[in-house]
Specification:
Number of strands: 5
Structural class: alpha/beta
Strand content: 5-15%
CATH class: Alpha Beta
Helix content: 25-40%
Order of helices and strands: EHEHHEHHEHEH
Distance between the termini: 15 Å
Number of helices: 7
CATH topology: Rossmann fold
Length: 189
């Protein structure tokens, strides 16, 4: 499953994700791609309803994301970096996986706590315009906890800073090859 967290189609994040997925598909993987800016997902209400049921009580586009997550054994999130984190569309989805965290960790029943495949894996691809040395630090922590919430081992991260103009990532000396090779490996493990 590929979660595309950028509002800009055809931009640097989109290019990197497509190269990663090309590597996956060439290994025989099938992939469902969800463009997060095309679905309506509201923020977490902090109502604690998921702690009781293991399900989010808010009915919106996140329901289709939950269903796709349930079907997936590999999850890649690709997002640009805005103000040192993922855009609002991606962050809303991440926050709403609190329901999955609750299902996994806080509910009193211990049978089938997560319901996820035991070998589920997660990968993050990020790209940002600035060259700040800490540009990706907070996002990488966020992604580690996101993958934990969805029951995936965070097995890889590729991040690229100093890339601003649409399509400029193609001029990066290693990005395209790294994304393709990482996709091949991700689908092979």
């Amino acid at each position: 499953m590929a979660l595309f967290g950028s509002p800009r189609k055809g931009g640097n994040t989109d290019i990197l994700l497509e190269e990663f997925l090309r590597g996956c598909l060439e290994q025989g993987a099938s992939c469902e791609r969800i463009s997060l800016c095309e679905i309506k997902v509201g923020g977490c209400k902090g109502c604690d309803g998921c702690a009781k049921t293991g399900r989010c009580v808010v009915e919106d586009g996140m329901q289709s994301v939950y269903e796709a997550l349930d079907r997936s054994d590999r999850i890649v999130m690709a997002a640009p970096i805005y103000f040192y984190n993922v855009p609002a569309q991606a962050k809303a989805v991440i926050d709403r996986t609190q329901a999955l965290w609750s299902r996994k960790y806080s509910r009193e029943d211990t049978e089938g706590r997560s319901g996820f495949a035991p070998d589920r894996k997660g990968f993050f691809i990020g790209v940002g315009a600035t060259r700040g040395k800490c540009l990706f630090d907070g996002t990488i922590y966020t992604m580690r906890y996101f993958f934990d919430a969805v029951g995936a081992e965070h097995v890889g991260t590729l991040v690229y800073g100093g890339v601003d103009d649409k399509g400029a990532i193609r001029d990066h000396p290693t990005a395209m090859r790294e994304c393709y090779e990482s996709g091949v490996e991700f689908a092979s493990t």
